Hints:
Layout: H1 22-38, H2 45-53, H3 64-75, E1 78-82, H4 88-96, E2 99-103, H5 120-131, H6 134-148, H7 155-167, E3 170-173, E4 176-179, H8 182-185, H9 188-196, E5 201-204, H10 207-211, E6 215-216, E7 223-227, H11 231-237, H12 241-251, E8 267-268
Parallel strand pairs: 1-2, 3-7, 5-7
Antiparallel strand pairs: 3-4, 6-8
Helix pairs in contact: 2-5, 4-6, 6-11
Fe (ii) ion (FE2) is lined by residues 118, 122, 127, 167, 182-183.
Amino acid sequence: MEFQSQYIAKTPDSQGFINYTEDENTVWKTLFERQMQTMPGHACDEHIRGIELLRMDEHRIPQLPDINDSLYKTSGWQIYPVKALIAPDEFFKLLANRHFPAATFIRTLEELDYVKEPDIFHELFGHCPMLTYKPFGDFAQAYAQLVLTIDKKEWPLLQRMFWFTVEFGLIKTPQGLRAYGGGILSSIEETVYSVKSLVPQRRVFDPISVFRTPYRIDMKQTVYYIINSYSDLDTLVNSKISVLLKKAHELGEFEPTFPFEKNNPNIHIFCC
Ligand SMILES: [Fe+2]
């Protein structure tokens, strides 16, 4: 059965501003305050710096024109309001033009810890700060441009790369392991778990391995890939992706490291 969202994106006015309710701003405040507590020691410096550059605070949901003003000045990116989850085609076309899509609703208090569909907290707090860091913003654009040149039958594997970097990437730093993925950094539980827990596997970033790794979207990740520096991502977009994909196909899928249920739409897998 197709997933039906309970959320409806809010329509910006002619100036791009959205009239959020007091309850919606309270949800933002709760999420922002508790997430800021977890940033030191878990989030990478680029993300923490990005929050400052974008001048986000707990008082209210940031307005897109304000975010866009700061974002454009730092890295040339813009946030592009959308109604809901969009098709991969549209998604990568937006990214290729330095536009990051964001649905403009916020989760309810009842779904504070986990919301299936990405909301404005995930997009603004999880993703936007990293986009202020130009090398990362350049990677996100270059990767999307690359995806658009590749046969769509390969897109599921290419989406895995996006998942294990932009959404759930970890980076090695002199201070220790840190998160740079927006899926991690917008989740209070996963921010700590991804960096500190002994439960998940943490593998050295290797593009062929990433292409071979299934994932599940409705639980904390069981595998993370660690880059040594952002230049690993730069190297990736300058590689012969077709050769890497061919090798990944030859070697086949890794076994799932999460509970596997046949036909579960939350599982990104190609076998069985
Ligand atoms: Fe995301």
